Amino acid sequence: MDKRSEHIQQWIDTYSDTLLNSALFLLSDRQDAEDIVQNVFISAFESYHSFQGRSSVKTWLMAILKNKVAEFYRKKYRHTGNIPLDHYFDREGSWKHDDILQDWNEKDDNLLDNSDFNSVMAECLDKLPLKWLIPVKLYYLEEKKAASVCQETGVTTTNLWKILQRSRMQLRECLEFNWFNIS
Amino acid sequence: MIKRLIHILVMPCKQATLLIEQQNAGEIPFVQKIRLRVHLTICKWCSAYNRKVHAMESMMKNIFTQDSPEKFSKNELELFKDKLKDKLK
Fold first, then answer.
1. 8 A C-beta contact, residue A103 and residue B48
2. Tell me: the pLDDT tens digits for A71-95?
3. What's the start-to-end Cα distance of chain A, in Å?
4. Hey, is A183 helix, strand or coil?
5. H or E stretch at A14
6. Phi, psi of A89 (to 5 degrees)
7. What pTM value is reported for the model?
8. In angstroms, rounded to a whole number, what is the distance separating the alpha carbons of residues A94 and A16?
9. Which of chain A's residues have a Cβ under 8 Å away from the Cβ of B28?
10. Of the partner residues B13, B59, B64, the one whose CB lies closest to the CB of residue A93
11. CA gap A49, A46 in Å, rounded
C-alpha cells in the first residue's frame, strides 16, 4: 500500500465519526450524510497531493465537507426563488383574512413544555417543504446567523428572508387550525 | 379602507412581514426599521402577526434544539468505515 492509501485509511478511521455527525446535522438525513462523507474521502483521496499540511487534516476535510453540502443544496433546491404569497395577501399586499387578528391564548399553560403541543408543532413543521425546512432549522440551530446558513445551503440572503416569512405563514395557519382553534 | 391607507402611506403588509424576519435576525437597514415601526404602530393586522411570530420564534427554537437527530451508532460507524476503506484501497 502506498503512502496515500495508508493515510486515507487512517483518516477514515479517525475522522468518519466527526464528519458523519456534522453531515447529519447539516442534512438531516442519514443516507445523504453517508453519501456525502464518502464523497469527501474520495475527493481527499484524489486531491491528496494538493494537501500540503498547511491546515490540520480535520480542518481540510471539514472544508471539503462544507463545499459538498453547499453544492448538494444548490443542485437540489435550485428553484427556491419564487415564493408566492397570494394565499395570504391580495394584489396590493394587504392581508386577505381577518383571522390574523385573533390572539393566541398561549399564556394559560406552559406551551413549550407541553408534549401534545410540541407534537402538533412537529407535525406542522413536517408539512413544510424540505427546501424550506432545512434553512429554517439551520437558522435556529446556528443562532440566527443568516450568513452562515446561506453559505451552507446555497440560498441567497433575500431568499432566506422569504423562506422564513413563507414558512412562518404556513406554520401559523397549521398551528391555528390544529391547536389554537382559530378558523 | 384603513388597510389601503397604510399601504399607500407606509408599505404593504406583504413587505412588512418580510421585514419582520430581517428585524428579528438583526439585519434590517435603518430606514426600513423606522418604516416597519411606523407600520406596526398603525396596522393592527401586522402587529397581531408580529406577536405570533415572536411566539413561534421561541416554539421553533425550543423544538429544533431539543430533537436533534440521533447520532450514528458505533455499529453504523464501523460498517461505514469498512465499506469505505475497502473502496479506497
1. yes
2. 887 777 665 545 678 889 998 888 9
3. 68
4. coil
5. helix A3-27
6. -120, 145
7. 0.76
8. 51
9. none
10. B13
11. 8
DSSP string, A15-78: HHHHHHHHHHHHH--HHHHHHHHHHHHHHHHHTGGG--SSS-HHHHHHHHHHHHHHHHHHHHTT
CA-closest candidate to residue B65, choices A121, A125, A141: A141
Look-up of cell digits 468518519: A16
CA distance B85 to B53: 48
The dihedral sign for the CA sequence A170, A174, A180, B3: positive
Residue A138, phi-psi category: left (phi > 0), alpha (psi -120 to 50), beta (remainder) = alpha
Q: Which of residues 19-78 of B touch A (CB under 8 A)?
A: 20-22, 24-27, 44-46, 48-49, 51-53, 55-56, 58-65, 67-69, 71-72, 76-77
Q: Can you tell me the distance from the alpha carbon of B79 to that of A32, in angstroms, rounded to the nearest whole number?
A: 16
Q: Give dist(CA A115, CA A102) in Å, integer.
A: 24
Joined grid coordinates for residue A174: 397549521
Q: In this complex, do A94 and B12 lie within 8 Å of one another by their Cβ atoms?
A: yes
Q: What is the pLDDT of residues B27-83, one digit of tens each?
A: 999 999 999 999 999 899 999 999 999 999 989 988 888 766 678 899 999 999 999
Whether residue A109 has pLDDT greater than 70: no
Residues whose CB falls within 8 Å of the CB of residue A57, separated by 6 or more in sequence, listed in order:
A11, A14, A15, A51
Helix (H) / strand (E) element for B76: namely helix B74-87
Residue B11: its chain A contacts at CB < 8 A? 93
